[in-house]
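Checklist before submission:
- one chain only
- standard amino acids only
- sequence pasted in full

Submission:
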Amino acid sequence: MANKVEICGVDTSKLTVLTNKEMRKLFKEIQEGIRVQEARQTLVQGNLRLVLSVIQRFTNRGEYVDDLFQVGCIGLIKAIDNFDLSQNVKFSTYAVPMIIGEIRRYLRDNNPIRVSRSLRDMAYKALQVRDSLVNRHSREPTITEIARELKIPREEIVFALDAIQEPVSLFEPIYHDGGDPIFVMDQIGDEKNLDASWLENIAVKEALNKLNKRERLILTLRFFDGRTQMEVAEEIGISQAQVSRLEKAALHHMRKYM
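Returned file contents:
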């Protein structure tokens, strides 16, 4: 009882797993019309653990596990109904992308970010064509192939598919080896806060402190406050030509200090 976990009323600790040989036998029975419903039901029951393993990738998105499990089962059933035994591919290899695709469609439909109807329709057509091409060629099609099938420019397909992607949390784990997980935010670089930039800022501040008060004021107004030379001249009461000369001298001094 300690290991019992129920999802949608299913005791996951008692789920059976079919071998590849057993599944091929069941698929043959379906193709030959022998006890089709029983074989199909056995295939579904024997692959529920596969659905459980897939939904683990989506459990940190705030969705109910029961809902994800049910949606994943729909993907599993679609995979069973469309699996081609003659392709000599393991069922799990074919089913996992189908289950993931069904869950992603569900998440996109429940996405709080609103996308225009025309973009969404185009994206769904592209996904339908993608599934059709996967069934036809037993491989993932390229964007160019999908665009050619729909007779739509490739760029529009890319834009539509990008528009319906669900947002990803910066705290979503992307790798876990039993120790501390690695999150998305750990893989994002911050070009504004590199060590070189930090050291450069310190050098600039130290160099500014070496200047006299008027030179420091001119450079601060010009490069930190964004004033023009004419505006600086009016503020400190000298000519624009003097501001230009003092600015050049101050920058020259700073270069020596840095």
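Reviewer check: Strands lie at 6-7, 10-11, 173-175, 182-183.
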